[in-house]
Amino acid sequence: MSLKIKPMLCQEAEQENEDASSCKAFHLPGYVWETKFDGARIVVTIKADGSFDLQGRSGADKTKLFPELKFNTKIPCVLDGEIISGTSFNDIQHRINRQSGIEMAAKTRPATFKAFDILQADYHGNTIDLRHSPLEKRREALEEIVLPTESCELSEMTDDGLALFLKIRDEGGEGVVGKNIHGHYVENKREWLKVKTWQFGVFQAVGYTEGTGWRKSSFGALALVDTDNGFVGEVGTGFKAQDIRDIQSYFSPGVCPWSKDPIKATWIKPFSVRIRYLEFTADGKLRFPSYRGII
Question: pTM of the prediction?
Answer without folding.
Answer: 0.83
